[in-house]
Amino acid sequence: MTQKPKEQVSALEVGPVRGIASVEQRAFGLPGVPAFLIIVVMLAGVAAVTGSVAWMALGFVAFFFLVSGFFIVAPNQASVITLFGRYVGTERRNGFFWTNPLTTRRKLSLRIRNFSSQQLKVNDAGGSPIEIAAVVVWRVVDTARASFDVENYEEFVHIQAETALRHLASQYSYDDHHSYDDHQDHQFSLRGNPDEVAAALVTELGTRLEHTGVEILEARLSHLAYAPEIAGAMLQRQQAGAILAARQIIVQGAVGMVEMALAQLSERNIVELDEERKAQMVSNLLVVLTSERGTQPVVNAGSLY
Does the predicted TM-score (pTM) go above 0.85? Predict the structure, then answer.
């Protein structure tokens, strides 16, 4: 029987208290090339009509002021635009654009990123010290939240990933020590259920980072080991469990072969054995079948009894 993974804690238990979340909206932006031509034509017309040096100088000042409103958005990038401290929108379209020159524009990458966390030394559900690390793949999906709802969203992602990893490690045991016993329920473990552990880590990270505008694409353990001070003892325990499991399989097979041998001897009337001889035969066959070394047969040249 396999137990279900432990339920993840709620968002309020794993993340900061939420305030009023920012909402991304599309910014006002004109295509850059037509806007540039319109500005040049307008200033040239004003200079031609007035013809004075003062107006021409003023036209040059206006030109450089209006030119400051041009900006470029590269593929998989966005430009977050604010006006006097107020968020006015985000430009996600790629290309050359013009907007209000008084605005402030901040570039934000929308590319997929990944990082490998540091190796953390934590205690698993059984209290054993272990070393654990993970690789997290993520990207920004809401530029408004990433820009205004957290101080530094990249640092926030790294810290929350470490916190989630510590919490996850404390919810599961390093290994399922009952896996060698068919009579006990199997439990999820960090080593034995990598896919389930990865899914739980993605779920918890998604909950923690929901209000930051970040999406977790994948998260998997990249390092998992017992702490050096107990690694030797735990290795012996794993070896003992593996030997026990192998012995159980060998014994089950040997018992089946002995049962089959007795049944065929009885069905074919090859020899009739009393209970004492059956017990002796079973003992000999089990010794032969379960022995680690090759057995030396002793041939009985006399009578059976």
Answer: no
